[in-house]
Amino acid sequence: MMSEETYEETMETSQSPRPAPKLNERILSTLSRRSVAAHPWHDLEIGNLTFSTALIVVEITKGSKVKYELDKKTGLIKVDRILYSSVVYPHNYGFIPRTLCEDNDPLDVLVLMQEPVLPGCFLRARAIGLMPMIDQGEMDDKIIAVCADDPEYKHFTDIKQLAPHRLSEIRRFFEDYKKNEHKEVAVNDFLPSEKAHEAIQYSMDLYAEYILHTLRR
What we know:
The chain has 217 residues and is α+β, with helices and mostly antiparallel strands. 26% of the residues lie in helices and 24% in strands. The longest helix has 24 residues, at 193-216. The protein is globular and about 50 Å long.
């Protein structure tokens, strides 16, 4: 049995103030109003998407009717809207970091894989094709890619290897998903992986020019 003296010592020890846990760098930076949080558009290195794989940031989950998108100011994923049409995204959808298109957004990517991925995650992918698209009169091309770590899809290297019905589903989704908003979207013929690589390189160059211009200001 525990003696009275030992019991009192134990109680004193348990009631003594414990050392405060150290605040991590993210909390400290918030308190001091200095941001060190990584921005998914600017701080992730995409790798070499032409010859191997690259990082893709997922904004929208496969099977979702919620249109999530990157908030470019904070780097967080926000809810933009719920799709007006009775459709869901056929595959995980996101963007390539450190790219820029004429609409002032990073380059969009549809990633084919077996499972849905949570918004805000990033994964390794390989570009296999390009879907030229016109959204309300403006270019809004999409890269078609496959998850490099999915055993069912990682062997694909070009969009012509996909089943025609798979491409038909993708086309139909983008043709229909804005119809109830009375917005016109036109999808042209899918292009091979070489065109996807050219589009990625162009968007990377555009992003680099934007960064240089910003730094000079």
